[in-house]
Amino acid sequence: MSKLKEILLINIRTDIDLFDVLFIVDGEEIKVNRTLLAASCVYFKAMLFGNTNEAKQSKIVLKSTPKEAFKKVIKFIYADECFIEDLAEEQLFELINLAHCYQFEELLKCLLIKITLENYSVDFNVALYDFCSKAQLKDWMNACLNYFDEIFVSEVNEANFAKFSKLLVCDLTARD
């Protein structure tokens, strides 16, 4: 990348005078650069430059968006990093769901690499598998199935098995 392009990208990310849209999420104001967000994923492009009410506004209230998940999305766009260590399981699930809703493939790929499913509860993994199955996130589904395979290699735990959804049991037993 040329020095000029690098400087331009840094300026777009850091110059607050270029932040031209304000999101309000759960009472918190988050000011961002409209163009940078639109370039990051299909959802923001449609919202901010499409034939929508939001495209004409400089202040957008997101009523049903989880604040911590939204802040992580913005941080990923601006810093190309996603720290998840500080998120509770519910917040992490909200982040995965939001990345999917936003059709933010790069963030989903980053999360899939960063998340070690063994560090999370069986309940979390069951909910994640069910969500990924409905959302047709094949790579995520495979990661979850591998996690459940590992559980059965070590021991069959009746309490854990009772937490499995019908869909998960069917998919686990249908494989070779």
From TrEMBL:
Where the record annotates domain BTB, the positions are 19-86
Q: Sorted alphabetically, which InterPro entries does this protein's record hold?
A: BTB/POZ_dom, BTB_POZ_domain_cont_9, SKP1/BTB/POZ_sf
Membrane spanning segments where? none
Entry-linked SMART domains: BTB
Give the UniProt entry's GO cellular component terms.
cytoplasm
Q: Which Pfam families match?
A: BTB
Gene Ontology biological process: adult locomotory behavior; circadian behavior; modulation of chemical synaptic transmission
Superkingdom in the source lineage? Eukaryota
Name of protein:
BTB/POZ domain-containing protein 9-like protein
- Taxonomic lineage of this organism? Eukaryota, Metazoa, Ecdysozoa, Arthropoda, Chelicerata
